């Protein structure tokens, strides 16, 4: 026999997927913060900069800061959505669905306005100098992170749409091993009925 009732699994899986998305976005924010903290050193090491290159350096700095803020903001949104998943309410799935749609759209816009897209070089030499500001590992990490978070968000939404999840949110079973949170105070106090 399974350790948890079958109808609880989609909710737990969705919860774990959202927590995974949250961790990935926090990792992306930490990487952007790391690059931002060392940005001035990288700029000074590659100096002198032309007027056009200085404008691009400023654009990269602004977009790194935007990536950091976007990642932290979306992490907060995902934390709220993850906290809502175990809450038994017929409105939970709609709330989480809208939050995941907002996360996906914001991440796609974040990729369009990523620090990489500010690197517009006229020559190979200039491109090499500008690429020292945003390492290849960050660009690869950001792209992979966005793809995984969007796929995991879609998977969480699909899991919440399962019939077993609908039963979880619409019918309260007092014998269930995971009853969900009864209030936000229970979350704060650590009483999760697990």
Topology (SSEs and partners):
Layout: H1 9-37, H2 39-45, H3 51-84, H4 92-112, H5 124-131, H6 136-160, H7 163-170, H8 184-189
Keywords:
single chain; 194 residues; mainly alpha
Order of helices and strands: HHHHHHHH
Q: What's the main sheet like?
A: none
Report the mean per-residue pLDDT as an integer: 83
In one word, what is the shape?
elongated
Q: Please give the number of β-strands.
A: 0
Number of folding domains? 1
Query: Between the first and last Cα atoms, what is the distance in angstroms?
Result: 18 Å
If helices are DSSP runs of H or I spanning 4 or more residues, what is the number of helices?
8
Strand content: under 5%
Query: What class, by secondary structure content?
Result: mainly alpha
What is the CA-atom radius of gyration, in angstroms?
Answer: 21 Å
Low-confidence stretches: none
Helix percent band: over 70%
Please explain how this structure is put together.
The structure is a single chain. The chain is mainly alpha-helical and 194 residues long. Helix content is 71%, strand content 0%. The protein has one domain. The longest helix has 34 residues.
Summarize the structure.
The chain has helices at 9-37, 39-45, 51-84, 92-112, 124-131, 136-160, 163-170, 184-189. With 194 residues, the protein is an all-alpha fold.
């Amino acid at each position: 026999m399974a350790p948890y009732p079958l109808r609880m699994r989609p909710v737990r899986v969705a919860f774990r997927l959202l927590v995974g998305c949250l961790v990935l976005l926090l990792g992306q924010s930490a990487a952007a913060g790391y690059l931002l903290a060392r940005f001035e050193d990288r700029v000074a090491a590659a100096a002198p900069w032309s007027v056009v290159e200085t404008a691009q350096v400023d654009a990269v700095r602004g977009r790194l800061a935007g990536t950091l803020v976007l990642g932290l903001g979306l992490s907060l949104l995902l934390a709220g959505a993850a906290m809502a998943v175990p809450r038994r309410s017929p409105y939970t799935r709609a709330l989480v669905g809208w939050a995941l749609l907002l996360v996906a759209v914001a991440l796609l816009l974040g990729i369009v306005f990523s620090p990489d897209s500010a690197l517009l070089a006229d020559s190979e030499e200039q491109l090499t100098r500008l690429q020292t500001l945003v390492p290849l590992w960050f660009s690869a990490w950001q792209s992979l992170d966005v793809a995984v978070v969007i796929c995991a968000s879609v998977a969480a939404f699909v899991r919440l749409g399962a019939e077993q999840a609908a039963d979880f949110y619409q019918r309260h079973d007092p014998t269930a091993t995971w009853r969900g949170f009864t209030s936000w105070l229970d979350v704060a106090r650590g009483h999760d009925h697990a």
